[in-house]
Amino acid sequence: MGKIIVEVMLKPEILDPQGQAVGNALPRLGFSFAQSVRQGKRFEIEVAGEPTPAMLADVEKAAEEFLANTVIETFVVKVEK
Amino acid sequence: MRVGVVTFPGTLDDRDAARAVEYAGADAVSLWHGSDDLKHVDAVVLPGGFSYGDYLRCGAISAKAPIMKSIIIAAEHGFPVLGICNGFQVLAEAHLLPGALTRNADMHFLCTDQTLKIENNKTLWTNGFSVGQEIVIPMKNAEGNFNCDDATLNELEQEGRIIARYVGVNPNGSRADIAGITNKRGNVVGLMPHPEHAIDLLTGPSKDGLTFFTSVLNAMVK
Questions:
Q1: I need a labelling partner for B119 at 20 to 30 A (CA). Which of A1, A57, B86, B182 fits?
Q2: Which of A17, A67, A71 is closest, CB to CB, to B103?
Q3: Residues of A in contact with B92 (CB under 8 A)
Q4: Is B97 at the interface with chain A, CB within 8 A?
Q5: CATH superfamily membership of A2-80
Q6: Rounded to a whole number, what is the distance in Å from the CA of A3 to chain B's nearest CA?
Q7: d(CA A17, CA A8)
Q8: pLDDT digits (tens, 9 = 90+) for B146-179
Q9: What is the tens place of the pLDDT at every residue in A40-66?
Q10: Exposed (0-12), middle (13-18) or buried (19+): which is B53, by Cβ within 10 Å?
């Protein structure tokens, strides 16, 4: 069984109130490392066998059309080793 | 005239939308998301709510429903479509309208009577208003922050496709105070606040919302 990962992030110019809220909470909890936080999504897709190039092309298409909204988001498709 | 009201899983305002359609003098026809049958309606309302629990992105899964395939084809030929709140999000996700609705800038869920200024009365859904008219209708959302790139915003401004803007303090961070927009043809309108909740003083802050529904009747019956 193989696993394909799709990670989706809001584009840098799109306001991310969720990430900001998390970033503002960290110092209150005593964590002082963060200059800023942005929150995204990760899809873990299990497939039968090793992902083929054709399958990856299909995942790209699904990400472009559905998993991400490219008006406001970017995505990357990866194969998990 | 027959106006369809679509129910998706998690739609909340389909009954109020149907009631508004009937107040305006048309027949409301229930349409189901899982069917591609538009039942010979003359116009469609995509009502508000939390279809699919806002999973993935608000309106994203509903935008791929079988009924939307029929609505997209019809809308491209001038068929009137009004998307309210979650319906607006569905229209943006279906690319019938540009841009996207993102989280409110201040993180709050808004629930308020909102003043809007009408800026375009040439669309099928706004022809009963006058330009510059201020109306008060309820607004309730957490993802009403309209976003688009600069080129799209310029196009919307130049072509007069911003149908309504928020008056006073921008409630959610929307670009250019945008509350609603239309497509190039003026048959598809998306609006974040809820006109269907403002059709009777018994239940709403005004009757201003009814004009969206009487507008489409005027346009189609002519």
A1: B86
A2: A17
A3: 71
A4: no
A5: Phosphoribosylformylglycinamidine synthase subunit PurS (3.30.1280.10)
A6: 20
A7: 16
A8: 999 999 999 999 999 999 999 999 999 999 999 9
A9: 999 999 999 999 999 999 999 999 999
A10: exposed
